Amino acid sequence: xxxxxxxxxxxxxxxxxxxxxxxxxxxxxxxxxxxxxxxxxxxxxxxxxxxxxxxxxxxxxxxxxxxxxxxxxxxxxxxxxxxxxxxxxxxxxxxxxxxxxxxxxxxxxxxxxxxxxxxxxxxxxxxxxxxxxxxxxxxxxxxxxxxxxxxxxxxxxxxxxxxxxxxxxxxxxxxxxxxxxxxxxxxxxxxxxxxxxxxxxxxxxxxxxxxxxxxxxxxxxxxxxxxxxxxxxxxxxxxxxxxxxxxxxxxxxxxxxxxxxxxxxxxxxxxxxxx
Length: 275
Description:
By secondary structure, the chain is α/β, with parallel strands linked by helices. It has a nine-stranded mixed beta sheet with strand order 2-1-3-4-11-10-9-6-7, sandwiched between helices. A two-stranded antiparallel ribbon has the order 5-8. The longest helix is centred in the C-terminal third of the chain and has 17 residues, at about 200-215. The protein has eleven helices and eleven strands. It has a single domain, classed as 3-Layer(aba) Sandwich (Rossmann fold). It is globular and about 50 Å long.
């Protein structure tokens, strides 16, 4: 039976903000996704950004690492970031494979020698469109059963600037040149996506609720009414039968609306790794 370490990459203040909006913690989202596809899997959730963080078990006792998203920024020189980069480097060196989304993509890239930057497009929040597979992506087993062009759910300010050696970009979009990458570095590998397969519209609703004042200050919404309107629409899109008008407005397909479609790459990665 495979044993996973789920690394919740949010610092305490970030976790508190998620809870304030009614969103689940990132570690729980990842555990739920894991158990949907591997019901007998064993896992520990580790709050890796905490000042007193101590691994629950030695790193080598885990078959794989699952890194969540985060509200941190990979190029900030703060302990919460530095200790995560160091742990990712240890995993590469020790041969422990990893998977993750968003923040995890930036972490995977930086720990292997690449670089990230603030996106010139600003914040991406909600559905992100026109993700296409690269030639390597078309051939890679993690994208089996995925159409060449698809949409996904996202929330990020940063993007990959420079890939490290050993990195194979698998997907791209107009807003992010690297939407998915498979990195082989030292003794291990790290597959990561810019988009969030663990998200659904209830998660986006909770995140929006917790961040609405910040997003208004940043000018992401024209006014509070616009934010509240999108919050209401996200809530409706989470319904068992979302309104067709909203599906059309947000240009959604089964890639976002169906849970197993959102999880496609994660499920394929588990199979690829023999987990």
